[in-house]
Amino acid sequence: MYQVIARKFRPQRFEDVVGQEHVTRVLCNAIELDRLPHAFIFSGPRGVGKTSVARILAKAINCEKGLSRNPCNMCPICEDITASRAVDVFEIDAATHTQVEKIRDLIDNSRYTPTIARYKTFIIDEVHMLSRSAFNALLKTLEEPPPHVIFILATTELAKVPVTVLSRCQRYDFRRIPMDDIVRRLRLVANQEQIQITDDALVTIALQADGSMRDAQGILEHISATGKGSIGVDAVEDALGLVGRSTMRDLVSAIIKKDAPSTLDVVDRVYRYGQDLNQLYRSLLEQFRNMMVLKAGYMNVTLPEEEMTFLKDLMTDISLEEIHRYLSVLIRSEEDMKYSSITRITLETILLRIISAPRVVDLQNLIHTISTRTGPLPSGHVQQISSVDIYKRPPSSLPLSWDGFLLYLRDHDQPLYAIISSATVEQDNGNTVVLTCPSQFLADQLKKTLPELTKRAKAFLQKDIVLNVEIKEADTFENKKPKPSEIRSQALRSPLVKEIITEFNGVVKNVKPKE
Ligand SMILES: Nc1ncnc2c1ncn2[C@@H]1O[C@H](COP(=O)(O)OP(=O)(O)O)[C@@H](O)[C@H]1O
Ligand SMILES: [Mg+2]
Ligand SMILES: [Zn+2]
User: Fold this and answer.
1) Cα(first)–Cα(last) distance of the chain, in Å?
2) Near ion ligand 2, which residues have CB within 5 Å?
3) Nearest in space to 141 (alpha carbons), one of 117, 106, 96, 95
């Protein structure tokens, strides 16, 4: 039952082979020109058409109607090859132990002429698994091939085939079959087999098959055997034990919203449902990867339509830099996940790490915001604070220091933080903090926020505090020509630089004054 679709839908003509046109085109040409080598080698992943093409080729060169790129598929020889019972076509699987013994003899006997076909044709699958003696026999034959012998070798591991063999073969590399081709083929199979299934469900299957048509068809067959009625994405996910799309969506949105409780909740759900947390992790990586490439303007991503809409909506809330950062943490932590015996805790730790990290400020946006702002800051948070609790310290475990205050701002008031990070603390004697700005413009911006900033600093630090702004204009810097060490220490004092260093685990190598 399980093999029915694969067999029934095995391509019988070159033009029915999907996604390997680069191979079939060249083969057809060689046939048409009657320039066939004695040995071919087909390499590529499993289930992409190597055996199918080998059989079509065997028919093309042996068909009773004569050498043709379109074998008749009806003469006894074609029919026997289709049914794998042709006396002159030997299909050998080098991965099967019982066959290994016989292979050497078979190859040794290839010098005898074929019984009825034109060529003695050897199709040797997984040829890299041949025994040493079989390889030697093969080499000997390939060095002086009898005119009536053709070898079609296939392998999923080309690197393991001895170069001595490779150098005597014409090589064809089969590729993973593109997603769209698989979906189209699955649709054809479903229609012919009267399987009712949605397009999105087919895409889900194709995604899982990772380029293998055989796997894709196998999954379709398996699901159609167990399911009733029209098959949707849910049925496919259930059958494959995949973490559901809706679960994935909940997780991704929770992470982007930096909503820790919801994030942990999804992990808990998946865990209790008995699903594989590593699989969840891989799907999550995949999702962020999709978001990254979409955000970068690469639209060639095959996804169920709903999924695409969801990702596109979500992407407006997140910058490319931010996605990069998530991904790099996920990639770096992949090993931890794989080898952890406590996957749940490991996963929770990684996810919390991602969401508790400060937002990466999108520099471009930031510069734009600062340079176009004229009036006072749009500070949503600030307006919510009534005069009553101005002097109440916001709940925070951060230290009662200026640095603590900056960290607090960073997490609670991005605009204000962005402005203040352009300044450096010149002096901080507890009650007076002197901030310097590199330009008149930035100083003006900062001054506008001073009342607000002071209010917040007082509340946070729980004491009276005076903030002063000083300007050190760029040209003043230049006039004074500060020593490189001064520039350096100044740069290192900037909160923004500090933040970047901790976040990216970086080192400041070189500091150049702005031109
Ligand atoms: N390129 C393809 N086009 C159409 N169907 C394919 C293709 N590749 C594989 N299939 C399907 O998968 C089945 C197994 O393919 P096969 O040729 O044996 O793959 P391989 O030898 O590369 O592992 C075929 O019977 C066919 O149904
Ligand atoms: Mg095969
Ligand atoms: Zn024929």
Assistant:
1) 73
2) 50-51
3) 106
Given a cut of 50, whether residue 381 has pLDDT beyond it is no
Note whether residue 254 is domain-resident: yes
Query: Could you give the CA distance from residue 365 to residue 380 in angstroms, rounded to a whole number?
Result: 18
* Cα 146 to averaged position of ligand 1 atoms, centre (Å): 30
**C-alpha count within 13 angstroms, C-beta hemisphere, residue 393:** 15
The token pair that represents 507 in the structure block: 């080192």
Measured from the Cβ of residue 299, the count of other Cβ atoms closer than 10 Å reads: 8
Residue 478, pLDDT above cutoff 60: no
- Structure-block tokens of residue 344: 């749940």
CA distance linking residue 372 with residue 399, whole number of Å: 34
pTM: 0.64
| Co-location of 342 and 292 in the same domain | yes
Match 């020109």 to its residue by tokens: 33
Q: Of the bound ligands, which one is closest to the alpha carbon of residue 63?
A: 3
CB of 438 sitting under 6 A from ligand 1? no
- Summarize pLDDT for 144-188 with one digit per residue, the tens: 999 999 999 999 999 999 999 999 999 999 999 999 999 999 999
Looking at the CA of residue 8, tell me the nearest atom of ligand 1.
27
Residue 497: strand, helix, or coil: helix
Backbone angles phi, psi at 210, to 5 degrees: 50, 50
- Whether 321 is in a domain gets the answer yes
Alpha helices in 361-401 (DSSP H): 363-372, 380-384
Ligand 1 binding pocket mutation candidate from 18, 52, 55, 188 (most atoms within 8 A of CB) = 52
Q: For residue range 261-315, what is the model confidence (pLDDT) as tens digits?
A: 999 999 999 888 888 899 899 999 999 999 999 999 888 888 888 888 899 898 8
Share of the chain above pLDDT 90, in %: 45
The residue segments making up the domain with residue 225 are: 179-240
Per-residue HEC secondary structure of 101-164 comes to: HHHHHHHHHHHCCCCCCCCEEEEEECHHHCCHHHHHHHHHHHHCCCCCEEEEEEECCHHHCCHH
The total number of residues written for the chain in this structure? 515
Sign of CA dihedral 485, 486, 491, 493: positive
Number of domains in the chain: 4
User: 259 with 344, same domain?
Assistant: yes
Which residues lie below 8 Å from residue 160, measured CB to CB, with a gap of 6+? 128
User: Cβ-count burial of 484 within 10 angstroms (0-12 exposed, 13-18 middle, 19+ buried)?
Assistant: exposed
| 34 shares its domain with 137 | yes
